[in-house]
């Protein structure tokens, strides 16, 4: 009886100690369910909930994963979409949570026991001699941190989960290295989205350079760093365009601390009601996510590096181009190792040779005769690329010497020469297209059967002699032909049935003076001015990243050529010749709306009435694309740069044909390109199906710019308290819309039109696409034919804008079309 009473009293003491610990750590009321003790373990469906209710800990099973695998995890308790932020037993899942238990072990460590009562996972920390499970408790804090502490001294934590991150950094969590012990924190990705076991990508502090962290592949290969962090600017040296995020009005700050004992990065949130995290994704990217309550989903606000910069994202013997569909392509002479995986979008398996090289390392021959090598192997060149990793420098005085040296070495798979000769002996990985076309050239080794020889030099010489003789004998005929060509400079053109001209590439070279007069660059290429023989000026766009076959390309041109509207740019012709893909448009003398709208001189400001008519004209052009064509055409890149102005300043939507050219699967193209900041609808990020309402959102963001004559991305840099769309919505409700107009126009604008434009813009940028009007309704509202109700304030834009003083919108750059 006495023993029973003693045991009961002992349990009561433990319970009181646990309550005291909770009160001291959290200032929370008694009776909280955030404590584990030796007599109060966790099992089955039980879970701990932090005192503020923000986080929970319990047994977790990944959705879609094997049903027999369970883990101890911490997740957001108030987020309906279960999102783990820490997992204890990543490498040793259990099969039955009902017969497993998380408890305090006899040595004071927190342990997970399986049904046979073997230790599956342990906090594995050193407990002071004499301590036991009667003096240690585990508590889940409202920061998401699970801690062990002595009941007698709660300020001295023994162990905390924040020191052992998995794939996630939370606000308040240090990420760095201990200078005394030399131990660095490491975030490790999941193996895939349904398997939380450690994957092949990780993030760790750079052991050699302070204020810098590295992305590591397979614990061996550093493949990216954002560069050194500058606390004054809040930017990394490798990402100079990154906006400072430690501003007074931001919802969080990112700081760097360096002292004698440690260096670390610290994410701090200023509003505990906002859920924010950064994750190293199974794709190898680091992603910043914020929970949007209205959308009930996580919103991506930054991602780094680009997918092409992630090591092995395309596997071996392929190359990565961010502006192509698909993103990864096998090199010439190679095919996908797993066609099924390739079609599903998983390219990590890479490519394999169609025909084996005549000699290889396995053949036992490393130095075959030079003549044999020249007969059996050849090279093909890939220009303007970022060279793959793993090269070896070889002595060679010239490119030809470098090539010969590679041919004489059976293990040489490719070479490059830029003053230095480089060989590759291992599988080519991370070969990337250089977006600035300033990269190097690489020569890929293939069997001769993969690169048939051209005509012999002797044959070419005979041909040249014949041609020269014919020219000499037919000089008079050539003179007559010259006169004919002067009358018709562009030859070989033919109509394809829809009033489109199929140009030859050399004809376009002629009328553009070899593409010397560049008008600008766009989402998928550069634009050049040309003049036809009759004096008609044209704009010629050289497409990049469009790899359709000639027959398919001509079929698309036939369809696009039938689309005519006064507010759509007119397509005059095209070129589809070998690898060349060009579009010939009518020339717009006043250039883009971007150039006219954002002129610095107040003397050239577009008057309000002209701006308002431009807004209506754009809306009419989009209405035609969405509703009046045989198939709905979603533009997907509405911005001032893609609105052109004719001689009378009438607007014409341009580049709409590219949406149709690329088909309906825009997801890979549009989410991997860079440049358009602040126009992209949120559904692009969330991965939901894209509809014409994505264009409506972009139109609304552009309409804000037309109203204010200032770029969306500049707001927040001008000492303004609010992101401009939020300011507009609030001024509408206050009845002071004139305050949002640019100062040069305040005495000129029609206030009724201004109010209409402001209200339409606010409706267009609603997060829920079902709340946005269609473009036909936009036209009616702007023309005063349809009544406009008071729009709700688009609060989620404020979250994105404040997330990093526009860094949220900056992140859209890596997921949106090029400007």
UniProtKB/TrEMBL annotation:
<dbReference type="Pfam" id="PF01453">
    <property type="entry name" value="B_lectin"/>
</dbReference>
<dbReference type="GO" id="GO:0048544">
    <property type="term" value="P:recognition of pollen"/>
</dbReference>
<keyword id="KW-0418">Kinase</keyword>
<dbReference type="InterPro" id="IPR003609">
    <property type="entry name" value="Pan_app"/>
</dbReference>
<dbReference type="GO" id="GO:0005524">
    <property type="term" value="F:ATP binding"/>
</dbReference>
<protein>
    <recommendedName>
        <fullName>Receptor-like serine/threonine-protein kinase</fullName>
        <ecNumber>2.7.11.1</ecNumber>
    </recommendedName>
</protein>
<keyword id="KW-0808">Transferase</keyword>
<dbReference type="Pfam" id="PF00954">
    <property type="entry name" value="S_locus_glycop"/>
</dbReference>
<dbReference type="GO" id="GO:0030246">
    <property type="term" value="F:carbohydrate binding"/>
</dbReference>
<feature type="transmembrane region" description="Helical">
    <location>
        <begin position="462"/>
        <end position="484"/>
    </location>
</feature>
<feature type="domain" description="Protein kinase">
    <location>
        <begin position="513"/>
        <end position="786"/>
    </location>
</feature>
<dbReference type="Pfam" id="PF00069">
    <property type="entry name" value="Pkinase"/>
</dbReference>
<dbReference type="InterPro" id="IPR000858">
    <property type="entry name" value="S_locus_glycoprot_dom"/>
</dbReference>
<keyword id="KW-0472">Membrane</keyword>
<feature type="domain" description="Bulb-type lectin">
    <location>
        <begin position="33"/>
        <end position="161"/>
    </location>
</feature>
<feature type="signal peptide">
    <location>
        <begin position="1"/>
        <end position="32"/>
    </location>
</feature>
<keyword id="KW-0245">EGF-like domain</keyword>
<keyword id="KW-0325">Glycoprotein</keyword>
<comment type="similarity">
    <text>Belongs to the protein kinase superfamily. Ser/Thr protein kinase family.</text>
</comment>
<dbReference type="InterPro" id="IPR011009">
    <property type="entry name" value="Kinase-like_dom_sf"/>
</dbReference>
<keyword id="KW-0812">Transmembrane</keyword>
<dbReference type="InterPro" id="IPR001480">
    <property type="entry name" value="Bulb-type_lectin_dom"/>
</dbReference>
<dbReference type="InterPro" id="IPR024171">
    <property type="entry name" value="SRK-like_kinase"/>
</dbReference>
<dbReference type="GO" id="GO:0106310">
    <property type="term" value="F:protein serine kinase activity"/>
</dbReference>
<dbReference type="InterPro" id="IPR036426">
    <property type="entry name" value="Bulb-type_lectin_dom_sf"/>
</dbReference>
<dbReference type="InterPro" id="IPR017441">
    <property type="entry name" value="Protein_kinase_ATP_BS"/>
</dbReference>
<keyword id="KW-1133">Transmembrane helix</keyword>
<dbReference type="Pfam" id="PF08276">
    <property type="entry name" value="PAN_2"/>
</dbReference>
<keyword id="KW-1015">Disulfide bond</keyword>
<dbReference type="InterPro" id="IPR000719">
    <property type="entry name" value="Prot_kinase_dom"/>
</dbReference>
<dbReference type="GO" id="GO:0016020">
    <property type="term" value="C:membrane"/>
</dbReference>
<dbReference type="GO" id="GO:0004674">
    <property type="term" value="F:protein serine/threonine kinase activity"/>
</dbReference>
<keyword id="KW-0723">Serine/threonine-protein kinase</keyword>
<feature type="binding site">
    <location>
        <position position="542"/>
    </location>
    <ligand>
        <name>ATP</name>
    </ligand>
</feature>
<keyword id="KW-0547">Nucleotide-binding</keyword>
<dbReference type="GO" id="GO:0051707">
    <property type="term" value="P:response to other organism"/>
</dbReference>
<keyword id="KW-0732">Signal</keyword>
<dbReference type="InterPro" id="IPR008271">
    <property type="entry name" value="Ser/Thr_kinase_AS"/>
</dbReference>
<keyword id="KW-0067">ATP-binding</keyword>
<keyword id="KW-0675">Receptor</keyword>
<feature type="domain" description="Apple">
    <location>
        <begin position="359"/>
        <end position="447"/>
    </location>
</feature>
